[in-house]
Structure of Serine carboxypeptidase-like 2 isoform X2:
Amino acid sequence: MAKEYVFCVLKFLLLLLQLVFLIHEADSASVVKFLPGFEGPLPFELETGYIGVGEEEEVQLFYYFIKSERNPKEDPLLLWLSGGPGCSSISGLLFENGPLTMKLDVYNGTLPSLLSTTYSWTKISSIIFLDQPVGTGFSYSRTSLDNKPSDSGEAKRIHEFLQKWLGKHQEFTSNPFYAAGDSYSGMIVPALVQEISRGNYQCCNPPINLQGYMLGNPVTEHNGVNYRIPYAHGMAFISDELYESLKRVCKGEYANVDSRNTECLKLLEEYNKCTDRITLFIIQYPLCETETPNCYIYRYLLSTYWANDKTVRKALQINEESIGEWIRCYRDIPYNHDIVSSVPYHKNNSISGYRSLIFSGDHDMAVPYLGTQAWIRSLNYSIVDDWRPWMIKDQIAGKVGTRQSINQRKALSCSKGGSMANLCRRVN
Amino acid sequence: MAKEYVFCVLKFLLLLLQLVFLIHEADSASVVKFLPGFEGPLPFELETGYIGVGEEEEVQLFYYFIKSERNPKEDPLLLWLSGGPGCSSISGLLFENGPLTMKLDVYNGTLPSLLSTTYSWTKISSIIFLDQPVGTGFSYSRTSLDNKPSDSGEAKRIHEFLQKWLGKHQEFTSNPFYAAGDSYSGMIVPALVQEISRGNYQCCNPPINLQGYMLGNPVTEHNGVNYRIPYAHGMAFISDELYESLKRVCKGEYANVDSRNTECLKLLEEYNKCTDRITLFIIQYPLCETETPNCYIYRYLLSTYWANDKTVRKALQINEESIGEWIRCYRDIPYNHDIVSSVPYHKNNSISGYRSLIFSGDHDMAVPYLGTQAWIRSLNYSIVDDWRPWMIKDQIAGKVGTRQSINQRKALSCSKGGSMANLCRRVN
C-alpha cells in the first residue's frame, strides 16, 4: 500500500515534470544574436520561438519576431502570413519584406550565406513572421490532430496565438497592430481581422490594438483563377483568336470546366501550351529548374539547404525531435478550404472601421491584378484618387488607384512586381 | 591667247584632278582589321566605305559591310536599315544583330570598349549596315540638296546604292539578297523591295537576286500610334476606366486629335502621366538619364563617345572634312514623310512572290505588336500555323503566329524583346 502510494506520488511527480517540460518546450522564446551564414551579429533584434495553441497547446506555432529598427515602442506591430497554404514564413522574411535575404551564390556544399537588405519593412515596424497552419515550416503538432486545419480554423488559431504572444510580450500591447500577408493569406487575414475584432468585444482577454490589414496579390475568391486568361491575353501570351474562342466556348469559367465541354478543354490545352513555360507568380521569368543558379527559384533551393542545416536549426532554437525536413512550401498539407470568398469579411471589416491596403503586382499571373480589381469594384466604393503611376525615386514602380469608403480602402498595383511584396520595390 | 589656252588646259586638268579626287573620295572602301576599343584583330571581315548616289554622286552613303562568318559565297546578303529616320546603322551593328556590342563599363574618359557577341546574324549571313538617309551617321552630302530626303526617294537612292555596291562587289551578285530593318525602316523596306523588283525588269543594270525582306516592329501606317493606348491598357499601364473613356471620347484617334475635343486632350494628358516615365521602346525599363550607367540607354552615350573618337573615325576611314559630330539618332533630320502606309507595298511584294518575315517584340510601346497584328490581319491571309510560344533553348522567347498567302507571310512576336531585333534573343 505504502509502495503503491509512493509509486503513485512518483508517477504524479513524473507527470508534473513532463508537463513542466512540455510547457517549457511549448512556449520557448529565444533571442537570436547570430545566424549561421550571416557575418557578424544581426543588425536587428530577432527572437524566435514556439507558442502552443489549442486546448492542450498541442499545436506548436513557430515564429520569427523582428523588432522595428526605428522605434519599437511606438512603431506598428505587424503579423505577416505567407501563402500556400503550407509556405513557411521564411518566404516573407528572406524573399519579400524582411531584413535578410539569400546571397545568390552557386551552391558549393557549404552553408548558403545571408545578406542584409535595405528595403525591409522592419525599418519602420516590428514584424511577427508566423509559420501556419500547423505542419508549415517549423510548426508542428504534439498529437495527431482530430481535424484538418481550415481557413476559419486558422483565423481562430492565429487569434489565440496573438493573444498568447502579446501576453508574453506585454510591452507591445499598446502598439498599433496590423495583420498582413500575401497570396493565400488573402483567405485568412480578413477572417482573422473579423475574429480579432469580435474577440476585442468579448470578456476576459485583453483587447488587441487592431488598426487594419494589408494584403498583396491576395487569393480572395476560389473563382479568381478565371482572371488568368483575360490577364494572359492582355499581356500578349495568347492570341486574340484563342481568347475570343475561350470566352465564347467556356463562357468565362476556366477553372471548373464541365468534362463534357470538350471544346473548352481543348482550348484550355492550347492556352496551357502558351503559358506553361513561364513562372506563374512572376511572368517576366521563364520556368526553369530549381537547381539552376540563374533560375529565379534557385534562391528557394538555397533557403532549403540553409533551413535544414543543423547549426541554423540550433541557432533558431528549433525543437529537433519534433521537426523533420524543413520544406519551404508544403504543397500537399492536409487542409480544408472552408472559406469560399473573403469578400464578405472585407465588407464587414470595412464597416467595422478597419483600414485595409490591397496591393497587386501586375506581373503575377497566379493571382492577377484583374481579379483583385474586380472584387474591389464589386464593393462599389467611390473612387477618390485616380489610377496613377506609383513612383519610387522618380521611377515608375507600379500603378495606384484608390477606392474609398468611409474607411479608406486602397487598391494599388506594382508593375515591376510579381506576387511577392518586396518585388514591388525592384525598379531597375 | 596661248597663255589663256594654257590656263584653260590647266584649269581643265585641275578640274579633272578634282573630279578624280572626288570620285576616289566618293567610292572609298577599306578593309578594317582592327577597331579601337576592341582587343586584337576583328574576328570577322569588316569593310567600311562610301558609295556616291545621285546625279553627281553628291550623296555619300556610308556603310559597314560584314562578311558572313560561315560561308560568304553562298550565305544570304542582307541590307540592314535602322529607323528614325536619322538613326545611324551602328544601332543595328552594336545594339541589335551585329557581331560587336558596347562593353557597359562606367565611362572614365578613355575610349569605351567593344565586345564580341554570340548571337550575331553575321554568323550565317553577310550584312550591309547602311547609314541613310543622307545626314544620318557618317553619310553626308557634298552639295546642299535641292530636295529633302523622303520615303519614296530613299527607296530609289538605296536601290541605286545597292546597284553600285554590287557593281563593286561582284562576288556577291549571285547570293540571295534580303532587305531588312526595324522601326521606321518599315516605311522604306517594302518600297525598296518594290523598287528593286521593278528595276530587275528594266534594262541595262544587272538584276539584284532579291528573295524577300524582314522587318522588326515596323512603322507601317502613320495611324499606327493609335495602338499605343490599347497596348498600354493590356499591359496594365492605364486603368479600365481611363481606357473606356479614351475610346468613347477620342473615338480611337489618339494621334491627331481635333483641338476642339478638349475632353479627349485631357484624357490623353492622364494617359501621358501614366506612361511618360517608361522607356517607350522597351517598356520593362524606366525612363532614365543617358548619363546614368545603370540606365538602359547609357550604352547609346558610350557609342557616341566611341564613334566620335579620332582613332575610331580614322580606323573606319571616315571622311573627316565632311562629317561633324556623329549623332546616334539625328531626330530633326530634314525629311519628307511621303508614304502614308506600307500596306500596299506589302501587298504588291507578296503578289510578286517575295517572302517576308514580320516580327514584333511585345515589350515595345513605340510600335506595339497590336498595330502590326492589325495590318497583317487586314491583308486577310489565311492562318496556317496557330499562335504559339516561340522557344529558345526550351524557354519562351516570344509568340509565333503564321499567316500565309501563297507567299508565306509570317508574323511573330518576341515577348522578351523591345523594338530592336536582338532583344528577342534575351531569354533570361
Summary: DSSP finds eleven helices and 14 strands in chain B. Chain B has two domains: 12-223+293-425, 238-275. Chain B touches chain A through 39 residues (CB under 8 Å).
